Amino acid sequence: MSLDAMDWVWKHAQSKGNARLALLYVADQVRTQACEERLSQGAFMKALNASRNTVRAAVHEAIEAGELEEKEPAVGRRAALYRLPKAAGYLRMPQHRSGSEVDPLRGQGEGRRGSELDPQAPRRGSEVDPLRDQGSAARGSKVDPQADRSGSKVDPPYPTTPRELRESAGAVDNDRYPDQVLPLVHAMSASGLDVRWPFRGNEWFPIIALIKACGVKAMVEHAHRAAANARTPVTSAKYFLQGWRELPPAPPEGTPVYRPTPHSRAVGAPYSSPEDRGIF
């Protein structure tokens, strides 16, 4: 699992500098398919050979990029639980060498086979087997490492070719946004909050539930207030998630609006009743 996770970081992670080193360290430590591991801040400092502030900034940058998650914060002596969400379930492509431990000369003496190595072995494309090595692509050999033995293609979990990588990086992936969240995404962008939405699969469900409960208008207004009070520019919609969860549910249609009625009284006169104090 660690090699698969590290392969994903090397080939697909977008983080740079210390944030990329932090991802590589987490990938080196994970031992489960879920790509989760408890790591202390001291371990990060030792692995990155950096100060505490540098490590905090690197981990924060990787989390903001959506390539690292802190599932559980550190409590006492118990280290925080980190996860590589995009590396979970990723499998690296098998590496094929020309010479293996089983047959060190495999692929190296093809031209000489049928001579001094093995006089009885048929040569490539000889009279004994004219079609030898010509149908290997259909049999799932080294010509097509993504084909299984039955001849069917196995779709890789992530883009693998340079063209696929360019298309996935340059094109706007509208299909990955569920229809239920598009009103919020469009409203945020139209109001001037151009942020990333690093959510995948089941991670969209809490946002869909919040849209139904609180409404798009209340969520956009809260996002603007939170962004105005932030110390640094907000670049990810995850920054607003906790505040959205604390919003009250939208009132049902037709709910009457109660507004306090102002009351006037003489200066120094005591309140005679709760109604005089504007309490309802």
Q: Describe it for me?
A:
The chain has helices at residues 2-12, 17-29, 41-48, 52-64, 162-170, 182-190, 205-214, 216-229, 241-245, and strands spanning 36-39, 69-72, 80-83. With 280 residues, the protein is mainly α. The chain has a 3-stranded antiparallel β-sheet. Strand 2 (69-72) and strand 3 (80-83) form a beta hairpin. The termini are far apart. Residues 98-102, 109-117, 140-148, 152-156 and 158-173 have low confidence and may be disordered.
User: Helix- and strand-based class?
Assistant: mainly alpha
Strand content: under 5%
Q: Detail the poorly predicted runs.
A: 98-102, 109-117, 140-148, 152-156, 158-173
Helix content: 25-40%
Q: In total, how many beta strands?
A: 3
Q: Helix count?
A: 9
Cα end-to-end separation? 62 Å
C-alpha-based Rg, rounded = 30 Å
Keywords:
single chain; mainly alpha; 3 strands; 4% strand; elongated
Secondary structure elements and pairings:
Layout: H1 2-12, H2 17-29, E1 36-39, H3 41-48, H4 52-64, E2 69-72, E3 80-83, H5 162-170, H6 182-190, H7 205-214, H8 216-229, H9 241-245
Antiparallel strand pairs: 1-3, 2-3
Quick description:
By secondary structure, the protein is mostly helical.
